[in-house]
């Protein structure tokens, strides 16, 4: 296994960070590396906001689920899907831009996820740890106001970034054959494999928590499908200019 494959399979979410700052210029190098991510039609429809103001960090912590590491990490970044820059570029060619298309939302969100994952991999190659913060979508309007996000821009997720202060185990992933399929969608063996994976995940949670957590992968899916998850997001996206036409 080469070093890149080994690094990718060693990823853990880090939720405890030292107080060591990043060396001067390292974040800029990581973002430059992240910009090498693939982008649909080269639109590069994202912006990354570095949150250095401690008051804003505290406010974002409150708005994103009171996750302490938002304040503790050396860096906190907010990744935004950004179609404003692209719309203005198109308008400069003399056309009247068509906005609010579902494809524009998809492209901007996918571009944002790709650049963020590139940054995560670059950061881990430098000995840093990261954890994504989907909680920024808990209160997206308040975060838009705090970060002065204009129309056609929305916060997709945050990322804590810094030097790890703990060494958690790698969380087991789904069996390869459940996600890699040959020629067509065949899930006939998935129920048995998912049962086996649930048993593996239950052992993992038991070991990680010293026996204090009894759960598995299937049980962890229940909250996503047992109610309306972030029902405010559709109205918020419409308000920001992503009309889903």
Automatic annotation (TrEMBL):
InterPro entries referenced in this protein's UniProt entry, alphabetically: Flavin_OxRdtase_Frp, Nitroreductase, Nitroreductase-like
Name of the top EC class for this enzyme: oxidoreductase
Keywords: Flavoprotein, FMN, NADP, Oxidoreductase
Pfam families: Nitroreductase
GO molecular function: oxidoreductase activity
Residue ranges constituting the Nitroreductase domain according to the UniProt record: 9-163
Gene3D superfamilies tied to this protein: NADH Oxidase (3.40.109.10)
Statement: the UniProt record of this protein carries the keyword rRNA-binding: no
This protein's name: NADPH-flavin oxidoreductase
Provenance organism: Marinomonas aquimarina
